[in-house]
Hints:
Largest sheet: none
Strand content: under 5%
Subcellular location: Cell inner membrane
Main location: membrane
Order of helices and strands: HHHHHH
Subunit structure: The complex comprises the extracytoplasmic solute receptor protein and the two transmembrane proteins.
Shape: elongated
Protein name: TRAP transporter small permease protein
Helix content: over 70%
Oligomer: single chain
Number of strands: 0
Number of domains: 1
Keywords: Cell inner membrane, Cell membrane, Membrane, Transmembrane, Transmembrane helix, Transport
Radius of gyration: 20 Å
Amino acid sequence: MKRPDARLERLLASLAILIISLISLGNVLVRYLTGGSFAFTEEFSVFLLVVLTFAGASVALRRNGHIRIGLLERALPAAGRQALILFQGGCGVVVLGLITWYGARMTWQELQWGSLSPGLGLPQWWYLGWLPLLSGLMLLRQLQQTRDRLRGRLEDES
């Protein structure tokens, strides 16, 4: 059976970790050679770390790799297991839906207010816009995972 995949999120996570590594390496070299450092590295690194976190969590969702205690699921009869999977999926959808909704509202407010980032003075919404996008992708992956678990396509770790 082919493992489910989240190719877009894997690509985003790979790019984020690559760019973080290059920025950090460049900053270390510049600091070593000149005694100074690049001002933008911390702001970009924090932003990319958030992208990496959300993208990685989305991949884990799609692959059924998030930590949970399966003891109760395995102990329940089939109907009870289905109800528990629906409950778990519903809770995930609610939480991710709220993050997506409020993240989009916050991004829109930052765009309207014209807020700038403290380090480089870039528009704050450039950074915040990724929150609703990535949490929306996680929401999609949550729905896919719940569907696949209900159909018995994803095996739990024993």
